[in-house]
């Protein structure tokens, strides 16, 4: 019996390792799609459904970021955050076009399209994939307590190990200005909401990969680096997984997305 139990434990460990190896193999992400949506917007449900489809596409990270600027129309969005509104406005500032609307999909931090316009969204995805904007691979692994995020760089780069929320070992004067920032987004995979008032009164809408927060993990200086996150921070209570995004720009004015990875199951 002891031998059988030991074998079972070993098999479980092997399966866990295999699942993470599988996750690594699936991290060839070529596009990140962010949908800025609102429960108070009657044009949004078709875009919410389209994002659900995109979430199943290989190589695509699809995220829902509900905004709060339509809350005055009679229904307060139950998933919205002012930080997502600020992120959308930051993208508009970066592009210089001031186009902030719902439903809006932003692809790789660069292009935007009406979120319900399938042809426009597919064209933007194809253009970004061809351009190869997502040029920095990210790899995830976990020991159950800690998530390790490996960020690729030039072969001659040196290794950096960065704890979440801590500065890198060398100072910025030595490394030069950062080339990007690594962001963590815990995600609720599926959320069904019955809307009681406003433009979508009586509708039940399913939201996919709803972002439940945005946290700065650390700066990336263009070299190979490993970042470490406690598992309970990466996936807090109420969340099903998490996404890591490497991005130029700042939290206030986000820039092009350089790379991304998602936890298994998203």
From TrEMBL:
Keywords on record: Signal
InterPro entries linked: DUF1223, Thioredoxin-like_sf
Pfam families noted in UniProt: DUF1223
The keyword Nucleotide-binding is annotated on this UniProt entry: no
Signal peptide: 1-16
Protein name: DUF1223 domain-containing protein
């Amino acid at each position: 019996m002891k031998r059988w139990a030991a074998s079972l434990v070993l098999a479980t460990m092997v399966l866990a390792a295999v699942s993470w190896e599988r996750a690594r193999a699936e991290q060839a992400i070529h596009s990140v799609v962010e949908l800025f949506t609102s429960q108070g917007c009657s044009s949004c449900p078709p875009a919410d459904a389209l994002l659900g489809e995109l979430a199943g596409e290989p190589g695509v990270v699809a995220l829902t970021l509900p905004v709060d600027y339509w809350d005055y129309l009679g229904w307060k969005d139950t998933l919205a955050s002012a930080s997502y509104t600020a992120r959308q406005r930051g993208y508009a500032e970066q592009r210089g076009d001031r186009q902030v609307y719902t439903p809006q999909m932003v692809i790789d931090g660069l292009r935007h399209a009406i979120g319900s316009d399938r042809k426009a969204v597919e064209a933007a995805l194809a253009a970004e994939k061809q351009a190869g904007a997502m040029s920095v691979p990210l790899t995830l692994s976990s020991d159950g307590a800690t998530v390790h995020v490996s960020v690729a760089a030039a072969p001659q780069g040196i290794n950096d190990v960065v704890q979440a929320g801590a500065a890198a070992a060398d100072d910025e004067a030595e490394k030069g200005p950062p080339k990007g920032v690594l962001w963590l987004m815990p995600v609720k995979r599926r959320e069904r909401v019955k809307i009681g008032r406003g433009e979508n009164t009586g509708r039940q809408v399913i939201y996919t990969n709803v972002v439940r927060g945005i946290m700065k993990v650390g700066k990336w200086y263009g070299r190979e680096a490993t970042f470490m996150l406690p598992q309970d921070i990466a996936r807090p209570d109420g969340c099903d997984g998490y996404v890591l995004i490497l991005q130029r720009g700042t939290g206030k004015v986000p820039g092009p997305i350089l790379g991304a990875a998602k936890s298994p199951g998203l």
